[in-house]
Amino acid sequence: MTGLVMPLGRDGRSAAPAVAHADRQILSPLLQVDGVSKRFGGLWALREVSFQVQQGEIVGIVGPNGAGKSTLFNVVAGVCAPNSGEVIFRGERITGLPSHAICRRGLARTFQIVQPFAGMTVEENILVGLLYGHGLPLRRARPLVDEILTVSGLGKLRDQRSETITVADRRRLELARALATSPQLILLDENMAGLTPADMDAALELLRAVRGRGVTIILVEHVMQAVTEICDHVVVLNNGRKIAEGHATEVVADPQVVEAYLGTAHVL
User: Fold this and answer.
1) Yes or no: domain 19-106+184-268 corresponds to CATH 3.40.50.2000
2) What percentage of residues in the chain have a pLDDT greater than 90?
């Protein structure tokens, strides 16, 4: 990918690059999830889940189906409030804030099932992120579309209706729309789902480039090859609880993780 530019700052200017790995450990975490629990009726989807994410990291959230991964994203992004626990972003308590308020603070989220705005072009979908996620007026948003199209590699598709592009390009568009909100942190929910090996390689390249421009990433992913290739560390959930955390190669060897994935060994 060529011509990559810095992601946008909250004021519409380019954001500063990520700090070096060696410096992150002395900084306060960008995101802190502290003892978060979420119940739906008699079902505990999350039980006292805690972890931290430093600026500039790529962190993987993995686990079998029903482990609580998407619920965790929903709590962090403000789709639903936890029954207990706290979510701290950039030093501010965001627990229970609505999604739009959290987005305006610099935390964006994509979804497992991509849903571009049908009947709108790729460019218009990105404009939605700039106008409503970032809160820019139209006169300031339009000049920034080219930057987002370049970052996402969608420049040649700008005038195509979003429902006509490939699955891989729809996933790029989902990420592009999130980038248009000028995030410091993006939550990606199964960004690799349905991709061919070649498309997956391109997606990983894009994520590395986005991280290299100062955006921190947390991704839910079932394709462990992608997780081991790109993640700095991994959090493993099972039955709503965190059962392991660490480097991907260490985590997949953990007996609790192997047991949790029993019957789905192809994922590991």
Assistant:
1) no
2) 60
